[in-house]
Design goal:
This protein is an alpha/beta fold and 182 residues long. The radius of gyration is 18 Å and the shape is elongated. The chain is built from seven helices and four strands, in the order H-H-E-H-E-H-E-H-E-H-H. The longest helix has 27 residues, at 37-63.
Length: 182
């Protein structure tokens, strides 16, 4: 079941799509190993419950935020932005290796000033000169959002997982979007 739109692979960052992806995986595993279906079902139910709680937190963040625009180093939050009703503007496209034109950078500066953007999002470990230049130009701070494409060994050893990192991402989004608890 194809969940990917516009060649954007970052479906796992949206808890709803992550649940659909997990269900597809679950169905495949159960069909290959029916003898252990009870174990897989129990694990899937626990995972689905945790995704539901995460989805609720994201909905609260979206409904309680005063800002609706964010700027990212590259376009990795498209699904989350669409689902939760905010606007992602990316410095580059889906790949961080893409280089924007001078005109695009000037338009980004204009956009950021018009929308009073206070934060530019990058990935952990990413040293984006473009993000740093834009942040400096508009007086914004750099914040990190984890795209969860992979977990580094040190993150795994520290006990990090999908949910712990998504909770951190949620906190960073709350900051950038001006979340006011209702």
């Amino acid at each position: 079941k194809d969940l990917v739109e516009n060649n954007d692979p970052h479906i796992w960052l949206d808890p709803i799509l992550a649940g659909k992806m997990a269900k597809n995986i679950y169905d495949g595993i159960v069909s290959a190993d029916e003898g252990n279906e009870a174990t897989y079902k129990k694990n899937m139910e626990g995972f689905t419950k945790r995704l539901g709680a995460l989805e609720k937190s994201f909905n609260q963040m979206a409904s309680g935020s005063i800002r609706k625009d964010i700027v990212t180093s590259h376009a990795f939050l498209g699904y989350v932005a669409r689902h939760y009703g905010f606007n992602q503007v990316a410095i580059t496209g889906l790949s961080p290796q893409e280089e924007p034109t001078t005109k695009k950078m000037a338009e980004l500066v204009e956009f950021c000033r018009a929308k009073d953007i206070k934060y530019i999002f990058t990935e952990p470990g990413e040293s984006s000169k473009l993000s740093q230049t834009l942040a400096r130009e508009i007086g914004a701070k750099i914040l990190e959002l984890h795209p969860l494409g992979t977990l580094r060994t040190d993150e795994i050893e520290a006990g990090e997982d999908y949910f712990s990192i998504m909770e951190k991402n949620l906190e960073v989004l709350r900051t950038a979007l001006g979340y006011k608890h209702k």
